[in-house]
Amino acid sequence: MFFVAFIRVAVIRRNPFVKYLYHRTMKRTTSFLTFFVFMFLSPLNVTSQSPWSLQDCTDHALENNLDIRRQRLDAERAGHDLVQSYANVLPTLGAGTSVGFNLGRSIDQVTNEFFTERIASQRMLASSDLHIFAGFRTINNIRYNLARQTAFRYDTEKMENDMILTIANAYLQILYFEDMLEVAQQQLEISRQQVERTRILYEGGTVSRGDVLETEAMAAEEEVRVTNTKNHLDLAYLELIHLLELDPEKDFSIEHPEIKIEEIPFLYDPGLVVEKALHIEPSVTAARERIAMAENGLAITRGQRIPTLSLHTGLGTAYSEAFKRVPNNLAKNTPASVTAQSPVMALDANNGMPAPETVPYRDQLSENYYRSVQLTLNIPIFNHLRVRTNVQHARIDLEQARIGYQRTKNNLSQIIHQAHADALAAYQEYVSNTKALEAAKESFQFSEQGFGLGLVSTLEYNEAKARLNRAEVSALQSVYEFVFKVKILEFYQGEGFVL
């Protein structure tokens, strides 16, 4: 072993190429081992949770929101009712048996005779019922439940869409307050620098003590603004966490996507948006299905005036201890001289004939077997005007469904036109605020330079800084207001809500 290692070292030292390969291989091996130790031996809790995107938030909310989960259960229940309405077309089938003992004077159900002793009996029955004609109520009930199940499904989609818009609004609120916090922190840093410069100027005799106090007061106001913005940001995060059904104690953060106003179209024709939304908006479809529900409900109620025809079939058998008879072979072969004291068989004390015996269980099941077929026609004539009242109520339900459908369309049109007007106003406000922001920046730079040279007073400097702050806040507000309203227009056209 030592000799082999010595030869290996000697070869490596004499051959430069081999020496290069050797060291390169050892370096890669060391890197691999370091990576292996870091990946598999490091603690698992050092990794932090990655920020959530808007899509992550909406996917999580749609999967875990309790109201949406309950709405999905209601839709599932409506689906079960639809399956049941289909199953009502099929005939029913049932079977059963009963076993009992009669004590005292009673009528046996098999022999129809009176008995006073204890009698054991059993009855077995199987039956089937089929509604041949029920005034079209069965088929109308299927149509009713089909429309109901569809309406519940679109109600679920409507709730999911509302949740997406709510999540998006909360998400944009966080982005807005994060930008506001960044602006406030920048203003605070500028104010702190200005305080230092003012103190230097005061020590040099350029400004008065009042100017120093004025800049310090401005810096204090900026600190309060930063604190308030942090509080608003925390509340916005808390609102989104509650919407996502998350634990507030765990770390949570969101991504901050880059929003470019220039790439966002906003000149949508609201009429075209409404026309397209009426075909894809789930709330409108659900209201339309409720009209179909009311129409079928009216047809079901009217069917109560029509006669019904049903078919009933059954078969059964019975067993009773009271079902007795003399065995045929014993009655034929018994001589007249045989008495009741015969050790072979029991004789009737009155006529000397063999006493009747209970018919065996299997024989009774076959002998007492019966079948029945029954047609039933039910003709409604007068039922205290209940059908008439139900029909009137069903007509009112239909009219209410039509009113609800029209109201849903009107609300959708109002939302879209309002969003379009708000988007247009926000964009115009954004253009104006952008110009005002540029002017405020130039004014502040001029005031800052003039203040350093002693040409601008502290009051004028603070006013320029306040104008800059207001312009930045107004610009941010118009940006996020414009983005949200435009995304609403895109959302109602089926494009989703994507930043």
Total count of helical runs of at least 4 residues: 12
CATH-defined fold name of the domain at 139-303 and 387-491: Outer membrane efflux proteins (OEP)
User: What are the low-pLDDT stretches, counting only 5+ consecutive residues below 50?
Assistant: 1-47, 334-347
CATH class of the domain at 139-303 and 387-491: Mainly Alpha
Overall mean pLDDT: 81
| Total beta strand runs | 8
Overall, the morphology is elongated
Terminal residue distance:
67 Å
Structural account:
This protein is α+β, with helices and mostly antiparallel strands. Among the domains are: 1-30; 139-303 and 387-491, Outer membrane efflux proteins (OEP) (Up-down Bundle), CATH 1.20.1600.10; 325-356, no CATH class. It is 64% helix and 11% strand. The chain has 12 helices and 8 strands. The strands form 3 sheets. It has a 4-stranded antiparallel β-sheet, covered by helices on one side. Mean pLDDT is 81; it is low at 1-47 and 334-347.
Based on the model shown, name its key terms.
two-stranded antiparallel ribbon, disordered N terminus, Outer membrane efflux proteins (OEP), 11% strand, 499 residues, four-stranded antiparallel sheet, alpha+beta, elongated, 12 helices, single chain
